[in-house]
């Protein structure tokens, strides 16, 4: 069955960077894009960007442009999301999700806490 | 960006009764090329990721009970639970994938009355 398993919770100081991984199994990794979505406490789901896992092309939300980098390692069937310049407002659960027409399978989420 | 507005913010429904959630897009989600609307519905339970219920506005994802239905076109969409069960208590989100950036509604909390 399709599974996306994310790395564990992180606590970071303001100004630092965080890198979250998303390991896929149960399907051919390069055949489906991976998106990243975050959910801050009490806020709506917020799309950050996506990667074409076949050719590595990326597209980012303008809100995060310049701070987010999405990459992938096809040999490990793993996608990564790195967010830099962290601030308290970046405290959220970060999800990866596979896309077909839309986001059909999601990782379990990774809590990133930004605190001094 | 496409703005997605859900209503109500929350609703309490008796077991076995109907629950209706509305979602309005600031722009049409209808593709003239295939006559499909790029609108999805998700269910999220506490501590879990969102779960896809419907895509193309009314195509039910595999395994979703048929008491759930999705309808609507262009800018106005509805998710209906025909007979609410205890396991349906959750937050429901609509999402457009017609245009980048993908955007979500604010969510509707469904509770048991």
Spans of at least 5 consecutive residues with low confidence of chain B: none
Bulk shape of chain B: globular
Give the SSE order of chain B as H and E letters: EEEEEEEEEEEEE
Cα end-to-end separation of chain B: 36 Å
Spans of at least 5 consecutive residues with low confidence of chain A: none
What percentage of residues of chain B falls in helices of 4 or more residues? under 10%
Structural class of chain A: mainly beta
- Quaternary assembly: heterodimer
Major sheet of chain B, described briefly? 7 strands, mixed
Beta strand count of chain A: 11
Question: What is the ordering of alpha helices and beta strands of chain A?
Answer: EEEEEEEEEEE
- Helix fraction of chain A, binned, reads under 10%
Output mean pLDDT of chain A.
96
The counted number of beta strands of chain B is 13
User: Which whole number gives the mean pLDDT of chain B?
Assistant: 97
**Largest beta-sheet characterization of chain A:** 7 strands, mixed
Number of helices of chain B: 0
So what's the overall shape of chain A? globular
Helix-and-strand structural type of chain B = mainly beta
Index terms:
heterodimer, A: 116 residues, mainly beta, 7-stranded mixed sheet, 4-stranded antiparallel sheet, globular, B: 113 residues, 13 strands, 0% helix
What can you see in these coordinates?
- The complex is a heterodimer of chains A (116) and B (113).
- Chain A has strands at 3-6, 10-12, 18-25, 33-39, 46-51, 58-60, 68-73, 78-83, 92-99, 103-106, 110-114.
- Chain A has 116 residues and is mainly beta.
- In chain A, the strands form two sheets. In chain A, strands 2, 4, 5, 6, 9, 10 and 11 form a seven-stranded mixed beta sheet that branches.
- Chain A is globular, with a radius of gyration of 13 Å.
- Chain B has 113 residues and is mainly β.
- In chain B, 0% of the residues lie in helices and 51% in strands.
- Chain B contains no helices and 13 strands.
- In chain B, a hairpin with a 6-residue loop joins β11 (90-96) and β12.
């Amino acid at each position: 069955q399709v599974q996306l398993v994310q790395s564990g919770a992180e606590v970071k100081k303001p100004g630092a960077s965080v890198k979250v991984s998303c390991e896929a199994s149960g399907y051919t990794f390069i055949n489906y894009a991976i998106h990243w979505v975050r959910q801050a406490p009490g806020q709506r789901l917020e799309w950050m960007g996506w990667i074409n896992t076949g050719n590595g092309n990326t597209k980012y939300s303008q809100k995060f442009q310049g701070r987010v980098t999405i990459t992938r390692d096809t040999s490990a069937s793993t996608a990564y999301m790195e967010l830099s310049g962290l601030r308290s407002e970046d405290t959220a659960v970060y999800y990866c999700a596979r896309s077909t027409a839309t986001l059909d399978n999601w990782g379990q989420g990774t809590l990133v806490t930004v605190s001094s | 960006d496409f703005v997605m507005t859900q209503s109500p913010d929350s609703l309490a429904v008796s077991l076995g009764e109907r629950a209706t959630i509305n979602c309005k897009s600031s722009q049409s989600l209808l593709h003239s090329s295939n006559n499909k609307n790029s609108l999805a519905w998700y269910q999220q339970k506490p501590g879990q990721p969102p779960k896809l219920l419907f895509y193309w506005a009314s195509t039910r994802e595999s395994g979703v009970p048929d008491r759930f239905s999705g309808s609507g076109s262009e800018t106005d969409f509805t998710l209906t639970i025909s007979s609410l069960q205890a396991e349906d208590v959750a937050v429901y989100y609509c999402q457009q994938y017609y245009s980048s950036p993908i955007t979500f509604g604010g969510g509707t909390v469904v509770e048991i009355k």
